[in-house]
Amino acid sequence: MAFNCNFCFNPESEAKSKSKMIDKLIKKDNKEYKRQIKLLLLGPGESGKSTFMKQMKIINGIEFNTKDIDEYRSTIYHNIIKGAKLFLDLRRKLNIPWEHKMNEVSSQTILNFDNLVDINEEMFVNLIIIIKKIWQDNAIMHIFEYKTQYQMNDGIVYFMENLDRIARHGYVPTNDDILHCRKATKCIVEHVIDIHGHPFRFVDVGGQRSQRQKWVQCFEGVTSIIFIIDSSSIFQSALIGDNNNGDSCPITNVKQLEKTNNDVNQVPKSFDGHKRTSYSGNLPLSKMDEARAIFETIVNNRFFSSVSIILFLNKTDLLKRNILLQQNQVSSASADKLINNDHLDNGHVGNGAIIAGGDSVEERCDQETEGRLRNIQKSILDSFLSVRRDKERPLFHHHTTAIDTHNIERVFNAVKNTILDKNLKNLLLA
Fold first, then answer.
1. pTM of the predicted protein model
2. CATH classification of 40-416, choosing from 3.30.1490.20, 3.40.50.300, 1.10.443.10, 3.40.50.920?
3. One-character DSSP codes across 260-281
4. 200-235: pLDDT as tens digits
């Protein structure tokens, strides 16, 4: 008797069903991928790309998970110890004597600490006792007179001022702590964040020279490029090989940069005096010059001819602080000269001193700082604009402070519509 097996397993039919299901999923994924707005974060190392990425999470209410918090805590511990090492190394190189001789011996414990060792809370608390004593020594305070001339992690001072809180048992990093901590990006990191119903894919890549060969892997399907530079680096030099040990040399190119504003059409060929726009491999390259050379390659790449490029001149807070520090040093020297020569006809010099013209030192410094800030920012922007071969191509720019959540939220809202319009046009043409 024949047996009707309508419900018997049919391998061929099952395979076709799975194939259709896979095709449907691929089609759905492709549709979702095309909807995504891919933003590529580019720029040299320590310009603020990863900090911007952290801000995108914070602004859009994405909490850091337990694993992230543990990693940031460890990174903060390392940042503090590396920062202490940097100050100790600079003290030795600048031959600044210790206020308290005993710190000479205890500082060796910090200098000999292995940076590759994982630091737990107990280890850090033991080290922090030494670091606090070192930090309070006048020898380390004197280092601040030279800090615009050396490469320093931007968060060093912030963490040193919060040592007691960070050393507490059960310490949990705050959002501000996370924004200030620094860890070099050595891989491609992607995050998809839904912003008002639009999926934004942020791609953060390492900015060190050794990492830039990986950038090409991320070029496909880019909607916009956010190119981030450290505008405060006009006061610094770069090191060949991206070392982070503080062995950088001072530069004196800020006055030269400001002079270009006397002629609107005069744009500096290079920030460090060398008439070149790309790294030659043998001459020292200023950090700003290096950033411009990278930007020149990106903005003139035919691959990105239809990609909108947004330039973030980041670390405005540090740029202004460095200008103010430089002015205060000059003002202090001028005040000393006035006192020594008894040239006090126009008033007295001291706290809130009155100088010729009737303005207080504080008011005059503030006006001068704002003026220099605008001049330097304009000169930096003009220099980056000058490397475009297509002068008609629009280039959006913003002055940013990546650790300031309100600033980044305001700036990103300003550029979001431009990015969405660009993406909509691409979808219509696809």
1. 0.74
2. 3.40.50.300
3. GGGSTT---S-TTS-S-SS--S
4. 999 888 645 555 555 665 677 888 899 999 998 887
